[in-house]
């Protein structure tokens, strides 16, 4: 599909320098600044001064003024005009000869009808970017009939051949850029590097093809061929980086105005883009002689007139491409326009075009293509939201921007009843709003409310995050929408976000009871955590009860995990009386984690443990492991805590065979013999009895520990026959083992006083030796320690005497070592390093104020 890229505008309506009776036609054209030069078939140079203007309807027109006609009197057609603006001259090629005329007077400067500047020339080209340039000089290249190409430097009064390249034939066309010359010989194109005299073959073309070489941008050249229907773009390295151009009407002449290539054919002019090599416009045109360009301005010459191609503004071209849904081409042209005219086609315009393109894709149902363009264009999100029925918040009115970015009425004309298309469009809107949510502060309410609706419709995982974090959702509409979509858990969360916690808890309670259903509801654990964090204490009391009925341990966590101290522990304990498992968990938290010093807490927990153990003992169906676990908890508390009321606990368990627990309790009230007898007679656990002696007096005086161990030994030595179920020999072995194992815990005299008379020395030989050894060792260590203390005392006394025996001589001339002022009082301070200062200057007694040295 074609778009309009150029307008044809007349420049010179009628050229007839020789008069009406003379048949004359334009052969060549040259422009230098505002000067237009035409070379004719009857050897005239016609000079016009042209300038752009506008007519009364605002269209661009060309105005021309004929400056002069110049007949060169050679009666041959002018083949080529080549302007040299830096030196104010024009090269004229006629019948193989090159003459020089001035730009303004057209008088001959060098070369005359009888004497030419250059001879045997077939074609000329100006180097648009010489490698080196000298002020007042121009560099050209010419093809000659002597099968050479010459590189020439021309100044105002001198012509110098820099280099000559030999060819195998006569060139008929050429173009030059830097050191590269693209030309033809016969039916073969070449790329020539004149600095290296290197000729690179490009490709051959058919015999009937008119050879055309046109420099495009930088080091790219357009060549006609290989057929008359094709054109190739090659670089100075001989590479083709673009696909071939298609010339359906042949190629007679070429002009270039970035990014377009204009080709004059037999009966038409076609416009191709260098960006994608596709034809953009076709114009029926006959009678064209040649088409050429000067600094981007394209002219076409006919027999007796000249017209110009004025480019249609890029913004109009882009709009035409968007209307034709040629998005990629529009973006290519957008990039070009931004580079050529960054002020006019700035980022604001770029974003506008991207927004229009996004809506083009959107209207075609190509939502995946529309999405990134919506984001990149920074279009107002309401432009998109308003197209979706029921999505714009009811409290908001939005008027689309002017000019309109699209002509879409609403989504229904795109969807056309298709559920899949409708779903895809909703998915695109969701992804779009998620991506730009934090970029538009002026319409946060519209974005967040629409997101909530989309999330609610599809039960999206992000719904909870949206409504529990900072948002700008329109509350009334959100509550209605969540209710309609039956997103009960999300509805409860939103009530909580609005500080309507009671409504939230009512909904969750109904979900727990099954009156409402929602697969996104996390369950009772979520409610427990919510109550844990809730600051409204009254709601905590009223709502935690139904949590307790579901899971007592979870209910207890409501009070356990609370970080504030707003709840009184006694109140909580009273509240949990109806829920024993929860109460136990809470008291364990107070005792073990919070390290409560309350006797009530410890006693209460101990009673709960006792009740649990007694209950299990009375239930013969319970597993033994369960009983052992319960007793282990009780024993651990009884041993580790010293804050419970022992008498209360002792009274509860005294009638049950909980001997280990009884022993611990008797130990707590210093009835150690009772405790030890239980361990020995009832449990027959001698190791436990020894362990009892170690732990029950932990941290107390050593003599008490010796007293308890002596009690244990006495029980072994004189067992009660009414309570003991073991033979005397067992106790004798236990006594001997205890004496030999724990020698340090016994006073030898006390032991000897209670040992039965029938025991021989051999029976206590090990104990006696060990005890004596320990006694002698202790005596020696005591003497050593005493002597060391005496030595330390003597050293300290010597140091003290040494420090105090030095004489401090005070005179009227002596100055304070710190402030350098004389002493006016009878007192002074002297430091160990010999510095003497005023009392007021001494400051810290442990640090010298003069040197800063510290003394211990």
Automatic annotation (TrEMBL):
<dbReference type="InterPro" id="IPR032914">
    <property type="entry name" value="Vam6/VPS39/TRAP1"/>
</dbReference>
<dbReference type="GO" id="GO:0006886">
    <property type="term" value="P:intracellular protein transport"/>
</dbReference>
<dbReference type="InterPro" id="IPR019453">
    <property type="entry name" value="VPS39/TGFA1_Znf"/>
</dbReference>
<dbReference type="GO" id="GO:0006914">
    <property type="term" value="P:autophagy"/>
</dbReference>
<dbReference type="Pfam" id="PF10367">
    <property type="entry name" value="zf-Vps39_C"/>
</dbReference>
<dbReference type="Pfam" id="PF10366">
    <property type="entry name" value="Vps39_1"/>
</dbReference>
<dbReference type="GO" id="GO:0034058">
    <property type="term" value="P:endosomal vesicle fusion"/>
</dbReference>
<dbReference type="InterPro" id="IPR001180">
    <property type="entry name" value="CNH_dom"/>
</dbReference>
<protein>
    <recommendedName>
        <fullName>CNH domain-containing protein</fullName>
    </recommendedName>
</protein>
<feature type="domain" description="CNH">
    <location>
        <begin position="23"/>
        <end position="298"/>
    </location>
</feature>
<dbReference type="InterPro" id="IPR000547">
    <property type="entry name" value="Clathrin_H-chain/VPS_repeat"/>
</dbReference>
<feature type="repeat" description="CHCR">
    <location>
        <begin position="556"/>
        <end position="721"/>
    </location>
</feature>
<keyword id="KW-0963">Cytoplasm</keyword>
<dbReference type="GO" id="GO:0016020">
    <property type="term" value="C:membrane"/>
</dbReference>
<dbReference type="GO" id="GO:0005737">
    <property type="term" value="C:cytoplasm"/>
</dbReference>
<dbReference type="Pfam" id="PF00780">
    <property type="entry name" value="CNH"/>
</dbReference>
<keyword id="KW-0653">Protein transport</keyword>
<keyword id="KW-0813">Transport</keyword>
<dbReference type="InterPro" id="IPR019452">
    <property type="entry name" value="VPS39/TGF_beta_rcpt-assoc_1"/>
</dbReference>
């Amino acid at each position: 599909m074609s778009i309009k890229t150029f307008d044809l505008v007349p420049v010179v309506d009628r050229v007839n320098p020789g008069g009406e009776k003379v048949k004359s036609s334009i052969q060549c054209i040259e422009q230098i600044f505002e000067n237009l030069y035409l070379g004719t078939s009857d050897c005239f140079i016609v000079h016009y001064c042209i300038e752009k203007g506008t007519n009364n309807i605002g269209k661009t027109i060309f105005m021309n003024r004929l400056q002069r006609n110049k007949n060169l009197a050679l009666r041959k057609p002018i083949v080529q005009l080549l302007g040299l603006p830096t030196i104010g001259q024009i090269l004229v090629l006629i019948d193989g000869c090159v003459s020089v005329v001035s730009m303004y007077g057209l008088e001959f400067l060098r070369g005359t009808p009888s004497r030419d500047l250059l001879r045997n020339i077939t074609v000329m080209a100006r180097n648009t970017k010489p490698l080196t340039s000298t002020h007042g000089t121009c560099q050209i290249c010419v093809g000659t009939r002597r099968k050479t190409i010459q590189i020439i430097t021309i100044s105002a009064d001198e012509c110098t051949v820099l280099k000559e390249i030999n060819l195998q034939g006569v060139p008929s066309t050429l173009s030059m850029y830097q050191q590269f010359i693209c030309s033809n010989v016969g039916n073969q194109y070449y790329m020539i590097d004149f600095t290296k005299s290197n000729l690179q073959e490009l490709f051959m073309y058919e015999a009937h093809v008119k050879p055309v070489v046109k420099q495009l941008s930088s080091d790219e050249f357009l060549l006609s061929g290989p057929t008359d229907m094709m054109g190739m773009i090659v670089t100075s390295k001989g590479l083709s980086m673009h696909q071939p151009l298609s010339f359906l009407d042949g190629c007679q002449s070429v002009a270039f105005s970035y990014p377009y290539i204009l080709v004059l054919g037999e009966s038409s002019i076609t416009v191709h883009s260098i960006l994608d090599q596709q034809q953009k416009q076709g114009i029926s045109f006959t009678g064209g002689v040649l088409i050429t360009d000067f600094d981007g301005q394209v002219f076409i010459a006919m027999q007796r007139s000249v017209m110009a191609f004025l480019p249609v503004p890029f913004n109009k071209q882009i709009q035409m491409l968007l209307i034709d849904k040629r998005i990629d081409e529009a973006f290519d042209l957008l990039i070009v326009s931004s580079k050529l005219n960054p002020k006019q086609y700035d980022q604001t315009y770029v974003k506008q075009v991207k927004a229009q393109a996004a809506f083009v894709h959107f209207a075609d149902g190509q939502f995946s293509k529309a999405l990134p363009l919506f984001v990149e264009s920074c279009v107002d999100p309401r432009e998109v939201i308003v197209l979706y029925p029921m999505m714009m918040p009811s409290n908001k009115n939005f008027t689309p921007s002017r000019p309109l970015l699209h002509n879409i009425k609403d989504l229904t004309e795109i969807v056309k009843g298709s559920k899949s298309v409708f779903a895809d469009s909703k998915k695109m809107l969701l992804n779009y709003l998620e991506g730009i949510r934090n970029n538009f502060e002026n319409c946060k309410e519209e974005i967040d409310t629409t997101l909530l609706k989309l999330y609610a419709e599809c039960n999206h995982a992000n719904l909870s995050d949206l409504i529990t974090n900072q948002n700008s959702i329109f509350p009334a509409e959100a509550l209605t929408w969540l209710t309609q979509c039956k997103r009960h858990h999300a509805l409860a969360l939103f009530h909580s976000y609005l500080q309507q916690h009671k409504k939230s808890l009512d909904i969750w309670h109904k979900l727990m009871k099954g009156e409402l259903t929602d697969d996104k509801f996390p369950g009772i654990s979520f409610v427990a955590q919510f109550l844990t964090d809730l600051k409204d204490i009254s709601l905590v009391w009223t709502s935690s009860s139904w949590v307790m009925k579901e899971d007592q341990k979870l209910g207890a966590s409501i009070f356990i995990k609370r970080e504030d101290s707003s709840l009184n522990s006694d109140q909580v304990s009273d509240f949990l009386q109806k829920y024993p498992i929860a109460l136990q968990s809470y008291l364990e938290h107070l005792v073990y984690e919070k390290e409560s010093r309350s006797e009530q807490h410890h006693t209460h927990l101990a009673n709960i443990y006792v009740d649990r153990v007694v209950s299990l003992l009375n239930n013969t169906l319970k597993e033994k492991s369960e009983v052992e676990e319960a007793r282990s908890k009780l024993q651990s508390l009884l041993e580790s805590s010293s804050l419970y009321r022992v008498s209360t606990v002792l009274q509860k368990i005294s009638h049950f065979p909980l001997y280990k627990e009884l022993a611990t309790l008797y130990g707590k009230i210093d009835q150690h013999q009772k405790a030890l007898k239980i361990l020995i007679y009832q449990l027959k656990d001698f190791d436990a009895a020894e362990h009892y002696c170690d732990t029950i007096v932990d941290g107390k005086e050593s003599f008490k520990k010796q007293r308890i161990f002596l009690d244990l030994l006495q029980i072994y030595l004189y067992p009660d026959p009414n309570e003991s179920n073991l033979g005397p020999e067992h106790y004798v072995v236990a006594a001997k083992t205890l004496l030999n194992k724990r020698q340090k815990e016994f006073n030898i005299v006390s032991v000897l006083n209670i040992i039965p008379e029938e025991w021989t020395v051999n029976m206590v030989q090990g104990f006696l030796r060990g005890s004596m050894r320990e006694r002698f060792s202790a005596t020696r260590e005591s003497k050593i320690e005493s002597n060391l203390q005496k030595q330390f005392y003597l050293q300290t006394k010597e140091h003290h005497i040494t420090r105090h025996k030095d004489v401090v001589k005070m005179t009227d001339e002596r100055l304070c070592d710190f402030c350098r002022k004389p002493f006016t009082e009878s007192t002074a301070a002297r430091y160990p390093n010999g510095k003497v200062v005023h009392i007021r200057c001494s400051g810290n007694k442990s640090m010298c104020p003069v040197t800063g040295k510290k003394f211990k």
